[in-house]
Specification:
Blueprint (H helix, E strand, L loop, with lengths): L21 E14 L4 E6 L3 E5 L4 E7 L8 H11 L7 E9 L9 E13 L2 E14 L2 E10 L20 E11 L1
Length: about 180
């Protein structure tokens, strides 16, 4: 099983906002959900960092693997030791860019766009291109992204005897609220 990181953000490009082109994490969560015939597995991570550079539309995420919390301690141990090898591969990373951002928006806004970049898990990098929803009202800028990840794509082997407990694809949900530095 696997967790990855990823979300993004958008903000107004007014004269007053130009001086504050870097947005950082105010609050957020990354969850993953694996639904298999014998068991559902879910974990949440709130210990990641993320920034958006509005000058070049770049997005960065760094996620500590051991930051994922499971409802069952044994699941968490298996995740870190057997699947993610979190002592060896301590973080997952995403570096990418937002697409289709308007040059100037004022007032409350809902925006649908995409983020494209490189997701690295267990030192294996893959290109991803996913939709992102942004909401801006006042000073709050929120982003949400949901996508599927295949553990096998990142070298995570699931033993045949556990194939009915761990899904071949894992749903990842990233929810982030950003603020200016």
């Amino acid at each position: 099983m696997l967790i990855i990181v990823f979300a993004t953000i958008w903000a107004t490009r007014s004269e007053t906002a130009e001086a504050q082109n870097i947005l950082t994490l105010q609050t957020g969560s990354i969850t993953f959900f694996s639904s298999a015939p014998l068991e559902d597995i879910q974990a949440v991570n709130t210990t990641f960092t993320t920034t958006i550079n509005l000058s070049d539309s770049s997005v960065m995420f760094t996620v500590p693997i051991e930051g994922f919390v499971f409802p069952k301690k044994l699941m968490q141990e298996h995740f870190n030791e057997q699947y993610m090898e979190s002592e060896k591969y301590t973080t997952a990373r995403f570096l990418g860019k937002l697409t289709h951002l308007p040059q100037k928006i004022t007032g409350a806004v809902d925006l649908q766009t995409r983020v494209k970049g490189i997701l690295t898990i267990r030192d294996i990098s893959r290109t991803i291109d996913e939709p992102v929803s942004f909401t801006m009202a006042g000073n709050n800028i929120a982003a949400i992204c949901e996508f599927m990840v295949r553990p096998a794509d990142y070298g995570i082997k699931i033993p045949k005897m556990l194939i009915k407990k761990i899904a071949e694809e894992v749903k990842v949900t990233v929810k982030v609220i950003y603020s200016s530095r």
